[in-house]
Each structure stands twice: as C-alpha cells, then as structure tokens.
Amino acid sequence: MEEDSGLENNGMFALYQLITQYIDISDSELEYCLSMLSYEVYKKKDILLKEGEICSKIYFVAKGLLRIYFIDDKDEEKTFHFCLENTFGTDYESFLKGIPSSFSIQAMEDTDVLVISFEMLQNIYRVLQHGEKLGRRITEEYFFLVNDKIKAIYVNAPLVRYRDMDKRFPKIHQRVPQHCIASYLNITPVHLSRLKYMNDTA
After folding, report:
1. 174-182: long-range contacts at Cβ-Cβ below 8 A with a sequence spacing of 24 or more?
2. For the residues of the chain, what is the DSSP string, one character each?
3. β-pair partners for 68
4. pLDDT at 4
5. Which SUPFAM superfamilies match (predicted)?
C-alpha cells in the first residue's frame, strides 16, 4: 500500500503501518478491513465512553487526543492513560468480556477516530490469515501498558514517572490541563509544579 494524502489525513495509512508491524496482510485483506471501518469526529470535552457502559468500540486516533480516566472512592477523576495520534484507545476488558467499563474516555481536543467494532474484530479473526495473531498482539500491548503503569506507581520515584511521561507523551503539557497530568502521575498539582521545577533545573 502506497501512502496517499487522503488516507494519511484520515488515519488509514497510519493504521495500515501499525497493522503491518504485527502481521503480514495482503492487499485484499487490507481492503476488506478498511471497508469495515467507520470514521467518527468528536469535539473537545466530548465523552466517547462513560464508566459503567459496555465498551463496544476500539478507537484509533487519527487526529487529536483522548484521555482514559476513572472516578475514585473520593469522587475524584483519576487519569489512567492518554491516547495520542496513531494509537488505540478503549477499555479492553469491557470490550472483550462485554462487562461494564471501569473507565470513561474523553476527547481532550477536537478528535477524529477510526472505529473498530466488536463484530468487526470477530470478522478479522475469521477472514484474515493472521487475524488472531493481530488481536493477540494488540491485547498484549494493552497488558504491558497496564503492567507498566501499575509497576511505575509502586517502584518508580515521582520524578522518574514524570520524565517517562514526557517521553511517552511528547508536548502533553501543552495539550491537557495540569490537573489531568498530576492525576496520571498519582500526585497533587502542587507536587507536579515542584517536579517541573526540578526537571527544568536539573
């Protein structure tokens, strides 16, 4: 598949590149997959998924930024993850098991996404020669993300988490409110200000 400006703009070429990192896919298989995708557009602050709903979609961010978060026992929002361009966003456990979601997903900017439904995923398993491998690799990536997130909270110092976040999410400070970043790092906004000063003067 050669790069095309239309495909590049709507995220399909980036999705193709991502898929081919995981599996070999023929032109006919690719055409089948792309024909099943839907394209959705969200405004800043729109909610794509509410906690307690069953997640029926995987979102591939073509443009913009998503935040995955939950409400803790103090009724405060806690950011779990940010989804930048050319990455996936969903609640995989809810999506795969058909159970109520533990997370909400919100657009932090005007955001365009390609949507993969549960039914489409099942068709990918059935039609693509390496479809099940693709699904397994994407699920593994999500597992590693969750594992790294939990391990970092218990093992890494706040400044280490801060620097890792900057590497993982370039320019995130210019794209989301600081209180969302603080909750992602599991620290207070005041502590975040101290970390920014320490990092800038190191």
Report:
1. 175/65, 175/108, 175/109, 176/65, 176/67, 176/82, 176/108, 180/67, 180/69, 180/77, 180/79, 180/108, 181/79
2. ----HHHHHHTHHHHHHHHHHH----HHHHHHHHHH-EEEEE-TT-EEE-TTSBP-EEEEEEES-EEEEEE-TTS-EEEEEEE-TT-EE--HHHHHHT-B-S-EEEESSSEEEEEEEHHHHHHHHHHSTTHHHHHHHHHHHHHHHHHHHHHHHHHS-HHHHHHHHHHHSTTGGGTS-HHHHHHHTTS-HHHHHHHHHHHHH-
3. 81, 105
4. 39
5. cAMP-binding domain-like
Q: What is the pLDDT of residues 9-37, one digit of tens each?
A: 568 888 888 888 888 888 888 888 888 88
Nearest residue to 184 via CA among 91, 80, 99 = 80
Asked if the model's pLDDT at residue 148 lies above 80, the reply is: yes
The structure's pTM equals 0.88
Task: Please give the Cα distance from 109 to 142 (Å, whole number).
Answer: 23
Contact 135, 96 (CB under 8 A): no
The residue assigned the tokens 């005007």 is 110
In the numeric block, the tokens 């801060």 are attached to 162
